[in-house]
Structure formats: C-alpha cells, structure tokens
Amino acid sequence: MTQKTKTALPPHQIFAVGLILSTLAGYLEAYTYLLRGGVFCNGQTANIALMALAFARGDMPKALSYPIPILSFFVGIVFAAQLRERISGIRRFRWEAAILLMEAALLFLVGLVPLTYAHAPVNVLVTFICAVQYEIFRETRGLPYASIFCTGNLRSAAEHFHAFAAKRDRTAGEACLHYILVILAFAVGVFGGAHLSNLLGARSIWVCCLMLFALVPIMFKR
Questions:
Q1: What is the CB neighbour count within 10 angstroms for residue 106?
Q2: Which domains occur in the chain, in start order?
Q3: Closest among 121, 149, 119 to 133, alpha carbons compared
Q4: Is the pTM of this model over 0.90?
Q5: Which of 4, 22, 86, 181 is most deeply packed, by most CB within 10 A?
C-alpha cells in the first residue's frame, strides 16, 4: 500500500480503529452469551442455528427468544444505511464519531439493567448497536472487513496469504497480517469480556464505553 493511499484514508479507517472495534465486538459477544441469556449479539448465523436446534428439541420458549436479536440486527442495518444516505455528505460533521457516542450512551444504559431482569430488551439493544457498527465501519486501512465477527476476515486472510505465497506479493502479505491481527483482537475481546463479565457483572459492559470514548478523538484527526 502506497504512502499516498495511507494519507488519503479517512479517520474511521485507521487500523487502530479497526482493532479496537473488533476487540469491542468480541467483548460484547462474551457479555451477552455469558450474562444475557446465551445469545450471540454479533453473528446471526449462530443465533439462527441455535433457534433451529431449540425448535428441534421442542424447547419453544428458548427457540422463540432468538428471532428477537435477529430482527434487531435487521433493523439496525436498515437504520444505519438510511442514516449514511442522509448525513454522510454533510461537511464538517464527523458522523462516524456521532455513531460511536451513540453506541457508548446505549451501552451505558445496558450496564444499568440488572441481570435479574428480562434479557430480551438488552439483547435487542446490543444487537442493534452491533448491526449499526457493522454497516458503518466497513473498511480498515483501505481493506474491506467485518468489524463484529471473524468468518469473512478469516477468508480474506487466507486469500491474501495464498496471493503472498503463490506470487510473492508483499502487499498481499501485509493485508493478510492485518486481517490476522483483527481476528486476534476479536479473540482478545472475547477473553477479556469473559473474565470481566464474571468479575463485574452487568456493569462490565461499561468497559466498552471506555473503548468507544477512546476512539472519538481519532475521528477528528485530519
């Protein structure tokens, strides 16, 4: 990747942003699965599979809990797509920073909900947040990536590794390394989320608020 390409990147595509968002996504995955009813807030493939398995076992209450985050994810994507069309062209407005602040505010509210309350409202909110992040933050360092799960990133890492090994393409090798680091960041987020969720309970999600606040200044870099 040339120096010209690097300097042309918008702030929300800086590699550090991609790493932190992937870490945050892994953290949320552990949080909702361990503390909020065994639901994955990011990968809806897993929720669809778990729903079908619950139906197969005849566990209707469990099966009917999964369409809630699936629908919330759908609505989040629609909301983010519409938002991008309406305000992404407004000059002097870092709308990606506004998205991060919105996420932080909603996650702060999630931390106030006791674990004894119904999990559905929390899962709806967290899944909606993940969907918005997935739709808005699509690239890091000029590379398309998924900021909330790993399968697509793993495929891209393998494809670039093949190009590097077969053609000695140094740029492909660098891209492969970037994807691997994003995947590792997700794993670190899951690991940290699991430990802190057990330690701090519902309010452990406020760690994600700190991550998001740390990203906001980057959004205003030229």
A1: 15
A2: 12-219 (1.20.1250)
A3: 149
A4: no
A5: 22
Any idea what the Cα angle at residue 150 is, between residues 201 and 148, rounded to 5°?
Answer: 55
- Whether 16 and 196 have beta carbons less than 8 Å apart is answered as no
- How high is the pLDDT of residue 47? 84
- With both helix axes pointing from N to C terminus, report the angle between 206-219 and 170-200 in degrees, rounded to the nearest 10: 140
Alpha helices in the chain (DSSP H): 3-8, 15-35, 44-57, 60-63, 67-87, 95-111, 120-136, 151-167, 170-200, 206-219
Asked if 51 contacts 67 with a C-beta cutoff of 8 angstroms, the reply is: yes
Give residue-wise pLDDT tens across range 84-141.
887 766 655 577 888 899 999 999 999 999 999 988 899 999 999 999 999 999 888 8
Tokens of 65: 């809990």
Question: Is the per-residue pLDDT at 150 higher than 80?
Answer: yes
Among candidate residues 173, 177, 154, the one with its CA nearest the CA of residue 163: 173
| Cα angle value 20/26/27 (rounded, 5°) | 85
* Cα torsion angle, 39, 40, 43, 46, sign: negative
Give yes or no for a contact between 144 and 156, defined as CB atoms under 8 angstroms apart: yes
- Show the tokens assigned to 64: 């009917």
